Amino acid sequence: MKMSEAKPGTTVRIDHIEASELKNRLMSMGLVKGTKVEILRTGPMGDPLAIRVRSYKMAVRLRDAARIFVTEVA
Amino acid sequence: MGMVSVALTGNPNTGKSTIFNELTGIRQKIGNWPGVTVDRKQGYASHRGRAIAVMDLPGTYSINARSPEERIVEEYLTREKPDIVVDVIDSSNMERNLFLCLQLLEHRIPVLLDLNMHDEAQRKGIEISADRLSRLLGMPVVQTVGRSRKSTQKLLDMFTSTVMSEYRNSPEVEAYIAHLDELKRSIADPEQREEAVMEARYAFIDRIVAETVTRHQMSADRSEMIDRVLANGAGSILVLLLMLYLTFQITFTWIGQPVADWLDGFLNEAVLPSAGAALASLGVAEWMQSLICDGIIAGVGGILTFVPLIFTLFFCLSFLDGTGYMARVAFVLDPLMRRIGLSGKALMPIMCGFGCAVPGIMGARALDSRRDRMITILVTPFLTCGAKLPVLALFGAVFFGERAADVVFAMYLFGILGAMGASALYARTLFRDDGASFVLELPPYRWPDMKTVLLETWDKGKGYLVKAGTIILSMSVLIWFLSGYNASGPVEDMSESFLAAVGGWMSALFVFHGFDTWEAGSAVISGIMAKEAVVSTIGILYGLPDLSPDMEEAEMVTTVAGTGLAAAFTAASALAFMVFSQLYTPCMTALGTIKKETNSWYWMGFAAVSQFVIAWAVSLVVYRIALALGL
């Protein structure tokens, strides 16, 4: 499943990030294979997506989240 | 013993600036890194008889040389080799913060780890063993709480007593680096290699955290509870509008503008007359009196009256940034703002353009990327500032009577559309996205450090006075000369001045716009000095010296009726003139600020010329459409 499709309130684990300009940056921010991500909410206009990863919170655009493949774990 | 050089590195939102300000206070020198609009902050301290120079490097998440900030950090650390490199780490967020730390260790740069805000971490149930961390990495570790005398003393003690070259990476770190090297050697595909390296870094980080951090039972996440209101659903948009409204009101109605008005009154009613009297009694030549009073003092006054606005706006922006709310503004507005090529944060400074472009242009400093800063600087002057309003109100009242409000409102729309269009255009042409797409940290809400807020505010205000002030002052003297002189010397009547002559030439540009009179041309030129001057110049040139920007509309109409002004424009050409006034070249105060902020004459010239051209073209189209509609 793509991270952009994950439901708010669920926790997912990263399986794979598609190659993109952003991939390197996402990885340095701690989004690597196996990392657990809590899906918090989308912004009031439906985008971007707020997530919690490694004890901090960040936001990614849905377009970018669609390139992160995840499995729901909780 | 010589001076100790200290460099502060760290992720954004770790309290690094607070530590810098606590260490150095007002002994700071703030400039630009060569070639980029990134603040270069150096400060000085002394402790136990030793002088300490502290460099506050830009906050970065990594050093992969992807952004100007990252390049600055990497180059500074590897070339300048400061005596002590401090990595300021947010104790509640060790994992992501350690990434930069590991990269530094991989470069074999000895690092003093500063586990900052450890009081906040403790409240969240996070306990870190500094000893174990120090042993595991082989580097000195100190725990601080940001703004506290004790923490500052602790750091200063470390700076004067620690010799970093005595520290070596621990065997564990060296083993980790060897493992990385092995990965880099053995994997041929660059993408897979990068992925493996990143995973290895985080695997090591996970190990460090497992060995040094104990998590007690987590209390409720306060920031998350606040986000449920401030970054969630329709409520978040209401809160954002309220914040925008408050920022605008505080700057232009409650605090900034009243102080500016008081200052303006003081200069005009107290300083100017007494200076004039003093000069007259000294027998100073009349032209000199005029230069000092109408040129220099008026010019300095014009500069000073913007200072309260800049200080107030900066205080608000700095404060909001310090709370973490600005990141939520970016979060909420991203879908809208990215269409015009900007991050959501840019809305705050741009909105200030409705009061005055100058603080808005300065406010661009608070943004994160050069692209955001440049576009914000260039589009803010399109909006209808307080000084453009009088000319719009005058022409609206005189030529459109009951429809005046609609026409003036339309001008606001022209300004907004102009800013949006220019932003979208510049984002696609001049400042293409450099691939560093949108990744936004949502830091925990904190009470901002007032010392940091005040120092930032002070710094912006001072920068404006010194750098922009000089340019603005020289331009103001130039305009004084142009409007008071011609080739044979001083003139009594402005209509005989250089300004009128240049206005005559200028009017040739407006033959297709229906306002190709030298009066209009002169008004356009003096409007480059200050937008208020458009109305006063028109007033003087059409023999209406009483026309003041403060006049009531009805009063304006009666004053103007039957004068040259009413005859000089038709409804269509008046509309074209309004559109032109709304959009054309920013006033010289704004231009001087653009020069200061972009550190470039080119961008100042670009702003001046491009807005002139855009205004010329748009007002021409408006005039032709108005004619076609039979106005």
How would you summarize this macromolecular structure in one to three sentences?
The complex is a heterodimer of chains A (74) and B (631). With 74 residues, chain A is mainly beta. In chain A, 14% of the residues lie in helices and 39% in strands.
Features:
heterodimer, A: 74 residues, mainly beta, SH3 type barrels, 5-stranded antiparallel beta sheet, 2 helices, 39% strand, B: 631 residues, alpha/beta, Rossmann fold, 7-stranded mixed beta sheet, two-stranded antiparallel sheet, 28 helices
CATH-defined topology of the domain at 4-215 in chain B: Rossmann fold
The CATH architecture of chain A is Roll
Biggest interface: A-B, 32 and 42 residues
Radius of gyration of chain A: 11 Å
Q: Oligomeric form of this entry?
A: heterodimer
Give the termini separation of chain B.
Answer: 81 Å
Strand content of chain B: 5-15%
Number of strands of chain B: 12
From the helix content, strand content and strand pairing of chain B, which structural class follows?
A: alpha/beta
Strand content of chain A: 35-45%
Extended strand count of chain A: 5
Layout of strands and helices, then pairs:
The complex is a heterodimer of chains A (74) and B (631).
Chain A: E1 11-17, H1 23-28, E2 36-42, E3 49-53, E4 56-60, H2 62-65, E5 68-72
Antiparallel strand pairs in A: 1-2, 1-5, 2-3, 3-4
Chain B: E1 4-10, H1 16-24, E2 28-32, E3 39-47, E4 50-56, H2 68-80, E5 84-90, H3 94-106, E6 111-116, H4 118-123, E7 126-128, H5 130-137, E8 141-143, H6 149-161, H7 171-186, H8 190-212, E9 213-215, H9 222-230, H10 233-254, H11 256-281, H12 286-304, H13 307-323, H14 325-337, H15 347-351, H16 357-363, H17 370-379, H18 389-400, H19 404-428, E10 439-441, H20 450-484, E11 485-486, E12 489-490, H21 498-507, H22 518-529, H23 532-541, H24 553-560, H25 564-568, H26 571-583, H27 588-598, H28 601-628
Helix pairs in contact in B: 3-8, 7-8, 10-13, 11-12, 11-13, 12-20, 13-16, 13-20, 16-27, 17-19, 18-19, 18-24, 18-26, 19-26, 20-27, 21-22, 22-23, 26-28, 27-28
